[in-house]
Amino acid sequence: MSTTDRELRVGMVGYAFMGAAHSQAWRTVNRVYDLPARVRMAAICGRDPEKVADAADRLGWESHTTDWRELIARDDIDIVDVCTPGDSHAEITLAALAAGKHVLCEKPLANTVAEAREMTAAATTAQAAGIRSMCGFNYRRVPAVTMMQQLIAAGRLGKIRHVRAVYLQDWIVDPQFPLVWRLQKDKAGSGALGDIGAHIIDLTQFVTGQRIAGVSALTETFVKQRPLPGGSSGLAATGPADGATAATGEVTVDDAAVFVARLDGGALATYEASRFATGRKNGLRVEVNGSLGTVVFDLERLNELEFYDATLPAAEQGFTRILVTEGDHPYMSAWWPPGHIIGYEHSFTHQMRDLVEAVATGVDPAPSFADALQVQLVLDAVTRSAELGSSWTEVEPSLA
Ligand code: SOE
């Protein structure tokens, strides 16, 4: 639907769950939003020649390759979208920035603080040449989450006192579920902490505008040995028995992480990230209590925001369920008439919308790599605190 002739040509590395989610968003974004540039899905890259060819066909990419260096070297690629496991984020991103490509990198930004720092420094250098970088914390772009941020920024909650955040899944409760890449530290960096804890760390820092300044944490690996996988992708959808072999290997990441935190604006916060919350499939819930009110977001009801306005007369106070589907709610004007709900995949379309707009108009998109480094610093502090028996661990500002 774009009214411009300007093209932004995308090359994506990775074709599994996130690759599919991003492809869907790249395919859709210009059909829904009127943007200053049109996206061309120029190339997709993956390690397996047959699978990448199939992915190109299924997901709508014009060409495919098994060599990400070749993809980055192409003159007809403007944006590199990194959807690989964390162990290759830094290498691919640094090469892409050095080649003058804009970068979208999936979360968490990297597997270590050192890598995240290097990526942030490279992004800052590239910025001077007009190269943009963004980290894919997609949940910021759920309209109800964006609205939560706007309400808090407008002062509707007053002084923030408490943040309560959980992200709960249950896809590895079965001890026979194989040792997929998400359960290996050298590939994923950490377990539930980096995979889903990173989302609630980013989301709460985003909506409150406050930084996590210190933490005290506990982590646990409940099942320490698992069957080696036969070649599965690492997601619940593949099922416990998928390709598992008789041999076992060590789980080298956390299954769950819980921590308390102080935010730099004075709020107290609690966080829980677990893959062992039986019955919870993708349960992300954040509650923020302020001196003037409370807001609650629950991903399983993502079209809604609960709001308690304590400035109303006492007789009228109570939790209001706001259906975030009006045309003047964030991102919603381009979708359906009021009351016609949207889903998980729309958060990615909104992310691409903001990225395309930023690149085409020459502004820096958010979350920046510095924002993502801030999350990485919290992940690192949580890990260190847990290793030292929950000792209080300060988190430095990424832009210090
Ligand atoms: C798997 O646990 C996962 O797909 C994460 O990697 C995503 O970031 C999250 O959105 C859903 O769960």
From TrEMBL:
The highest taxon in the source lineage is: Bacteria
Q: Which UniProt keywords apply?
A: Oxidoreductase
| SUPFAM superfamilies per the UniProt record, alphabetical | Glyceraldehyde-3-phosphate dehydrogenase-like, C-terminal domain (SSF55347), NAD(P)-binding Rossmann-fold domains (SSF51735)
Q: Does the keyword Metal-binding apply?
A: no
In this chain the GFO/IDH/MocA-like oxidoreductase domain maps to 147-295
The Gfo/Idh/MocA-like oxidoreductase N-terminal domain extends over: 8-127
Q: In the UniProt record, does the keyword Oxidoreductase occur?
A: yes
Q: Which PANTHER family match?
A: BCDNA.GH03377
Q: Tell me what this protein is called.
A: Predicted dehydrogenase
